Amino acid sequence: MATTTRIVLLLFTSIFFLFTLFCFTPFSHFSSPIVAKALSFFHHNADDAEAEAVSSISVDQHHGQSIISPAVDEKDVVVLTKNNFSDFVNRNQYVMLNFYAPWSYWSQKLAPEYAAAATMLKGKVVLAKIDATQETELARKFNIRGYSTVYLSVGGVRKVRYFEERTRDAISNWVNKKLNNTVENVTTVYKAYRILDAEPMMVLGFLDTLQGPHSEELAAVSKLHIDVKFYQTSNVDVAVLFHIDPQIKRPALIMRKRECVKYSHFDYEGQFTRLAIADFVSVKKLPSVITFTEEDASNIFENPMKKLWLFTPQRSWKVLCIFKEAANAFKGKLLFVHVEIGDELSAGRRLSHEFGLTEGSPTVVAYYKKNGVVKKHIYDGELSLYGIKSFAEEFMEDKFLIKAEPAVKTVIRLPLHSHASDPSSIPPAY
């Protein structure tokens, strides 16, 4: 019994001694490297710690919590503003555009990955960033509604939205895949069926041979339209499956859009060139009726086709359906554009004012620009399928006098072309 009591007392004394030692011995006396490393943060000079924090971290609020992100080395990321944007994207074939907000959690999270991707893609694509909170004009033009929003610009006039993961590897892999958008050979009917099932929008060339000048022209276009898949075949059975007459003179070309199971045949009149094919794809890949946004203003106004515009108040579904049905009869001949007139600050409202329209009922306008002169004619008939189609036919055949318009103050500002003499100027939209 006495022995047991002594053991208990000895154990209690040892625990008390260790407790006293832990509580009253300075932390610096502990020799454990793990403890020393952890506690060393409490012995930093306050001024040094503050300076280090300012230089190496940024704080943001996300769902009520503060996050700390490391400093970002953005040596390979180009900063774009309204002063250098147009000139830069026109001088560089491929430019990735990151519209961000400095205070945004997702913008801060993307920053180091984007910077790393810029280094990984250096020499292939330029990665640029635009502060959308400062460059509001550029943000409106690209219809930026959230941060970060990322695009890949091609040749200064075409752009593809980035929706993939926001990591350096995902960005790099996506860009490389787009840049390697080559023409794929289709040699079997089985593969052709798989393509028909998988591709929402594609181009197929029916050639005598899968190598040579015609294949090279097709490959060049695939680099411009990176949002469209390109294929080529010399197999007659494959051509038939894609609605190409097997007896047709080669080279032949079709574009297919799955959403309407529509096949558009390329009538090149002996000019199977990259320029002619690119123009054909530009026209055919657009929907039958384009809903106007500032983001698409460049593609709409720069398109050389005559345009038929429908301006409507909100929720004018009935007349819009009629307009779309009429558009199907003029695909590739006229460009049909729908503009919804919103509030006073909307692009649709401002554009309707520039067209000289009064607010109220839906209005159809024929619009044409030739030799720098803008002409338009407002339709005053019944907004029926027959009426709109008749008006469109007259417009195509120039059967009515189109009123010439004086120069107007532009409301939509477009990117420059590479041949512009004054890089700081912005040409009028119409």
From TrEMBL:
SUPFAM superfamilies, A to Z: Thioredoxin-like (SSF52833)
CDD domains in the record: PDI_a_family, PDI_b_family
A Pfam family the protein falls into: Thioredoxin_6
Thioredoxin domain residues: 48-212
Family listed: Belongs to the protein disulfide isomerase family.
Protein name as catalogued: Thioredoxin domain-containing protein
